């Protein structure tokens, strides 16, 4: 093997009006066994500060890929609900009762190994005790980042473990870092595809805390609150970005088949400390995931494997919301979901600025 320790990778040139991905390469590639891989921890483009006791977030990359992993760690455990949509979902674990960590990674299905490294570290932290009460759970989800680079290097157990070991309690790097280091958007055609990355947003309202971490790698484009497309489907000739629906309508009008490139997926975690029952948690996650179609258009396509993990540490009880006709306490989760939905939009935008 050849050591590449210290290798740095040019991310993009901000003097350019675009962040276009290189042309795809589908020949034989360098893989994990061909180089001596050493996890690194990039700073990202900037950081998002957060203050959520009991929650930490870490990232690690193989710059030789480039590809990476991101781990959200909750050592005390957090009840979880999973909302998975689209036609190309890649999940490992999918523990819907309780998780102690969530691992996001590049590498498509091959990158699922990163979550096993998180499991290994969680086991070590218990002193390798394996009684039922000592078991720890980690779920993982992956994006397809292989079209935006020319290697077959993928996240492995060592990289997932390195991301967990690097977890911080104060800030999350955003941009091309962690699992988002080779993420991209706007794949009507790969020649118009632009790099995005990892995003995050945090809000504290009195005792209530909400944190969103997302790795944005969709078919769709990234849309700002004023409707402007800020990343993806970049037209080299005009220097403009446009909604894919414009291309789809033009193709149908010309009697042609609309085109979209495979190899996508956006993965997200929304974490709160508000007590929610199982149904409320499930609907809270669904509400936030659905809201993200404002920021990503189109979303949840048959070429995406979008997955959102909704977690709660169950520490803060909100005032009673009042019973509905069916006796359900649903208003709290609706209000919380509305706030978290705005944070999710902020997180997506931070991934692509």
Explain how this protein is built.
- The protein has five helices and 20 strands.
- The chain is α+β, with helices and mostly antiparallel strands.
- The strands form six sheets. Strands 4, 5, 6, 7, 8, 12, 13, 18 and 20 form a nine-stranded mixed beta sheet that branches. Strands 15-14-19 form a three-stranded antiparallel beta sheet, with helices on one face.
- α1 (113-125) crosses α2 and α4 (278-291) packs parallel to α5.
Short description:
The protein has 353 residues and is of the alpha+beta class. It has helices at 113-125, 157-165, 244-253, 278-291, 331-352, and strands at residues 2-3, 35-36, 46-49, 56-62, 67-84, 91-92, 98-105, 138-142, 171-174, 184-185, 194-195, 197-205, 208-216, 221-223, 229-231, 234-235, 240-241, 267-274, 296-297, 307-316.
Features:
5 helices, 353 residues, disordered N terminus, single chain, 29% strand, 9-stranded mixed beta sheet, 3-stranded antiparallel beta sheet, alpha+beta
